[in-house]
Design goal:
One of its GO terms (molecular function) is hydrolase activity. It is found in: Cell membrane. This protein is mainly alpha-helical and about 210 residues long. The protein has a single domain (about 5-205), classed as Up-down Bundle (Vanadium-containing Chloroperoxidase, domain 1). The chain is built from 9 helices and no strands. The radius of gyration is 17 Å and the shape is elongated. The mean pLDDT is about 95.
């Protein structure tokens, strides 16, 4: 019997809320308006805070969690790794083949004549914007962290961490909101699919 844990239900609540609010946002504002609004809420503290948040989706934390699973939760290794490989495969196909060369905000809005706030010393990419790989990785990784937690509110908390990575990609001027919505969908839904496929082997965590 395939049972979705309470913590994953909480995580999915956070995911669906993020997607619905995000769709409303991108449907009602132009890309220029979206970026101006997000970019207007800035500070030196936020620059470093969201830079730090975006790093959680890179190598150190996912690999650290992988090592933890290998040592303590080996039954989660296959779904964790497979969901990463499959979601990342789709991200790379979209980013480098189907939407290859899609302009990132700094290039797309180059003629907007807006003095954008950018974090000092941060390299800003210009192409291959769609979808967001960091956001995909965040919603994948925090899904499996949520899976090990017992309470719905803890799953919601993991969802908020994943959302913060998505927001950081827009705040740091690396992506448009739509890039993060698609990246989140790939990371979360493919992880959910792997969770369901491996449900019988993961019953001890239910």
């Amino acid at each position: 019997m395939k049972i979705i844990k309470k913590s994953i239900l909480g995580y999915l609540i956070a995911f669906l809320t993020f997607e619905m609010l995000g769709i409303l946002f991108v449907s009602n504002f132009s890309k220029l308006e979206q970026m101006k609004l997000v970019n207007s809420f800035n500070s030196p503290f936020f620059d470093w805070f969201f830079w730090g948040i975006t790093q959680t989706a890179e190598y150190i934390l996912p690999l650290t969690f992988l090592i933890y699973l290998w040592k303590k939760q080996k039954d989660l290794l296959k779904p964790y790794v497979f969901s990463y490989l499959i979601s990342t495969f789709f991200v790379q196909i979209l980013k480098h083949w189907i939407f290859s060369g899609a302009l990132r905000p700094i290039a797309y809005l180059a003629d907007a004549k807006v003095s954008w706030h950018l974090k000092d010393g941060l390299f800003i990419n210009t192409i291959n914007s769609f979808p967001s790989g960091h956001t995909n990785a965040a919603w994948w990784m925090y899904f499996w962290m949520a899976f090990l937690l017992p309470k719905k509110w803890m799953g919601i908390g993991m969802g908020l961490l994943a959302f913060s990575v998505a927001y950081s990609r827009v705040y740091l001027f690396q992506h448009f909101p739509i890039d993060t919505l698609v990246g989140a969908a790939l990371g979360c839904l493919i992880s959910l699919l792997m969770n369901l496929i491996y449900a019988d082997k993961l019953q001890k965590h239910a």
